[in-house]
Amino acid sequence: MKFSDGYWLGKDNYIINSPIEAYDTSVRTVEESGQKSKTLVVNSSYQQLKTRSDMLDVGNSTISLFSPAPDIIGVELKHFDQDDRNPLYDLVQSTVNAEINTSDQFANYKSGDLEVNIPLHDKFRMDFKYKGNRITGSELKAQASIDDLSGQELGQVMHPNTVVGAQALLRDGSVRWADHFMREQLSLLPGTKVYGFGETFGPFEKNGQSIDIINRDGGTGSNQSYKSIPFYLAVQPGVKGQKKNKCYGVFVNESQPTSFEVATEVVDRVSFSTRGESLEYYIIAGDSPKDVIGKYNKLTGGSTLPPEWTFGLWLSTSFTTDYSEKTVMKFIDGMAERDIPLSVFHFDCFWMKGFEWSNFEWDKAQFPDPSGMIKRIHDKGLKVCVWINPYVSQKSRLFKIGKENGYFIKKSDGNVWQWDLWQPGNAVIDFTNLEAVSWYQGLLKHLLDMGVDCFKTDFGERIPLHDAIYSNGGNPEGEHNFYAHRYNKAVFDLLKQEKDNGEAVVFARSATVGGQQYPVHWGGDNLSQFHSMADTLRGGLSLMSSGFTFWSHDIGGFEENASAAIYKRWTQFGLLSSHSRYHGNIQYRVPWLFDEEAVEVTRKFSKLKQELMPYIYSEAKESVKEGIPLMRPMYLEFSDDANCSGLDRQYMFGSKILVAPVMTEEGEVDYYLPEGKWRHIIDKREMTVGNHGQWMAETYDFLSLPVWEKIQ
Fold it and tell me: Which fold has domain 632-710?
């Protein structure tokens, strides 16, 4: 959100106050679970303090500095001491021996090799240094406490000086409270590239973009995101043998919608702001982008390793197609007859009767013997996944139960919050109500008892932001993004509890901070077009730059009918992703319905993934251990090669395999090979690339693509 009018002025209707002078400090010690942590508190005035009269009628920002782990410093900016009722992300704390040094001239806080320095009784600024080198900072007037008076009757305001704090004194003597925001702006070193913010489908490098952290169901071709993560990675690329890259991460610990301006409002800064009286963020420093992402991943809960069978090929009924047990078994047998390895069969929405989602009951007209059918699928060596969501239609048998017991989100008038989008009279499960969680889990347990192995946890983004009452009394703006966390956790926890071997996996669309604990996530509703392959991959690489380890996408695209060319090219890409699923909307996604070559392509690449499985699973284990993605943006693996910084149509699959999906019908593809010795996995040719790298322009048939193994 932009509050400025150019570099010096503020926009009309905004009252912007900034710390001008830090004037005193204190140290607060907190003991939790037997461990003590130190917080440095710095008070800063909104005007320079020359005389005692400057201490009257002026606001303050209270700046608290603390550390949850070495090389990570948390910053809380607070104007008024108000409770916002937003849910808090679960952050993993570790032992930190923080160093605090203060004098009459400065305040310094140090954690590991990261430190922040604030001058006292001078022009306000904050400088963050890692191993002695400045990596970012907050300049004078970058921080701000902002009153938004656009909703007030401004013509009635007596005088600009009558605006104090967040109140406007009107001519009739009454006081109106304005909307209030807190803002920070962190500087960017020249040449710094910014990545992350979750699964965003626009340009991969985020410089020059405005990004709102709010989960929405907008498809992969829009600027909306199913997985909005208030984290960015800033990387100043290094040059091999000459200089190391400087990098750090910024995690804004706010569950309510947060707005980022990435070198837009001020061209050499990243601005971020949120509604309310406080703003908390963390600077995460490291020696490499991998190091930084790993520290952020661990801070927000770490990743979970999915069962090995999940890395095989998943086949779906697709969405609005007609299907019954006969259809399902025909598809499963058809894959086996064509010697195409299959791991999971997925039943999408219409395993339940239309208009009744969700009632968690099989449509007996199409599936008269679900328990028997599941056993028959298991006997063929496959796992079974079924679609679920957290919404309940008014026509569902469960609506009355949920309404009477208070299991749904309500409106302020006490009625159930409903609309007709998706299903008639849709209600939304309130996962802040522990009884509602147990009820929901009980409905799913019945399916597990029938033999279902896992769930596709769809939706979770269209959650009310306003006029929404939760059982825990939480702020609906904060609960909106956090809903995905509560939803996926409830399902994942049930699976861990009920499975004898503790194997748990969901196939989730929505996510927020910490969602990497509940794998796997897929990329949402894409189109059956080549440009949508590129959109999808950009979104995945951005998610992988945001602390997530595993990711998938709908092979062939979700919307529309896929052409044979799209299907075959996307099959190559999909089976060289961490998780692989055929899924569509109006069209079955079995290969023989496209052409015979599609069968050959599917067979070849599903078997290739099987052959690579020892490598893939070993790399998956290491990725979880280190907190880094299995599918890696090129800059992550080659951070000292500036040519890799903007590459968004290729990736590293683990540490050794480079994949460049073909995104043209003719088979033309441009890509880049970094320095090293490489062997093409399919055609076996070898290349030795010098320290300047090698740009490639090639043409491939449908049975091959650029997939290279780094052999030294």
Answer: Immunoglobulin-like (2.60.40)
